[in-house]
Amino acid sequence: MKTYIIHLIRHGQTEGNQKRQYIGRTDLPLSTNGIIEIESLKAIDIYPEVDAVYISPLLRCRQTAEIIFSNREIVSVDNLIEYDFGDFEGKTANELESCKEYFEWTSGKIAAPPNGEDAEKFSARICLGINEVVRHLSGSGGTEAAVVVHGGVIMSLLAASGLPQRPILEWACGNGRGYTVRITPSLYARSGVLEVVGEIPPGEAALLTSTDSEDFE
Question: What is the pTM of this model?
Fold first, then answer.
């Protein structure tokens, strides 16, 4: 039976990452350091050859994909856009520490920041986005794809559908890093399971950079 391999790759670093801000829908470009890091990772051949490339519609993902996969057409998938942090957008955890709603959100007492996105709806949306990727990849005749998205998208997707099962924060990955998943159509159709079969680069995906500990973009 045909299986599909999808490489989930987090975009390169932005100034928001460096400042440890919550950045969701703000359309930041890669920082100079982010561009240098992605180019350096590409130079040591950590990224696989793929049949197709899919991205979140935000600029930081497109720029990352264009550096890594310069010889491939890039397909934007709206449902893979990052989480909407609402009133917390652009702020750091330190700036929000005295905010009652922030405490309630981080402790799980409320499902969304003020004017932000409900966590369950976010998870459902990005699962729809991956469904679109699988359908498009299958229709094109390809079997291996890269999906360049956000840290929050990768963590939420694997927390919802990844095997082995892990808490969401254990699926964190640094900029330019990620995970490889295998999709078996019968298993995926029945239960939506994504089998995590590797890290990008091997053994390093879960190592956060020093600026990643509080941002999820």
Answer: 0.93
